[in-house]
Amino acid sequence: MKRSSLVLALTALLASTSVGAAEIYNSSGNKLDLNGRINAGRVLSNDDSNNVDASYARLGFKGETVLGESFTGYGQWQYQFQLNKSEGSDAVSGDKTRLGFAGLKYGKWGSIDYGRNYGLVYDVLAWTDMLPKFGGDSGNTDVFLSGRATGVATWRNNNFFGLVKGLNIALQYEGKNDRTGDVAVRRSNGDGYATSVSWTGDSGFGVSGTYANLGRTETQNRASYGKGERAEHWATAVKYDADQIYLAAMYGNTHNATPISGGFANKAVNFEAVAQYQFLNGLRPSLAYVSSRGKDIENKGEADIFKYISAGTYYYFNKNFMVYAEYKFNLLKKTNPLGLSSDDVTGLGVNYQF
Known about the structure:
Helices cover 6% and strands 56% of the residues.
């Protein structure tokens, strides 16, 4: 049956978890959009380390300027403010720059930019990082291009030079970040690269793949876990996103690149799957399974790094305001070799975004 234009409009409005930014300037080939979010949330668990206020605010902008025919300059910046701290505690606030990069785009040849941006491994991991509160565990910030990363040069080309609709490719290089202090092991990296490719058809079906290979620092190789001159990460994913249905699954392997307490797993096998349905009244229930199995861990052998089932939902009042709830059924054993928490966790929140 052919749906009415009203139903189609509601589907388009509610089926996306993102919203358009607020345009604050657009004149003479120059454009500036402002975007932001306030998330008032709480995480609840019998484990005190997971029983916290998770509130934050984000503010950012996207800008572009026309430099010539089919030639554009652009930039983006985003900052996060933690809302779970007392006044006067800025020295240990946890506030952070999430994104900050600038670049050039030229017609069918694509774009190239440099700065703090998402690593290309996350191009694939993002397909299953769709849960109301949790999820995305296979990607990590400042860890071998599997999340947001510093000092990355990224080239992207959509629709393969205008020849194949839906076929997108990308290449990325990251320079060495040899950090010190408490984050020297967890957030350092040597020089390296990543690549990603994806194809999404008009039917909503898509496939994607990524590979990253980066050097490791001397400090990382002196850590308790994880040995090797290079860190590798490959992953592939499939999705279906149409008719108010969202289904996605991701499978990948890492070598010396999945963090554990005291270093990195020599090898890890990651799997994530998510299913969601967008009701036209704004309700979007979600069900997911997320796991990572570490192998060849010194003196530990094999061990689950994370493993859980997620059940939750969003409720969109409109494109700018929604509430969410999610329950994480933790499948880790109480006597797991890595000493990780085995308690279930609940996430609740209210979100306003523009």
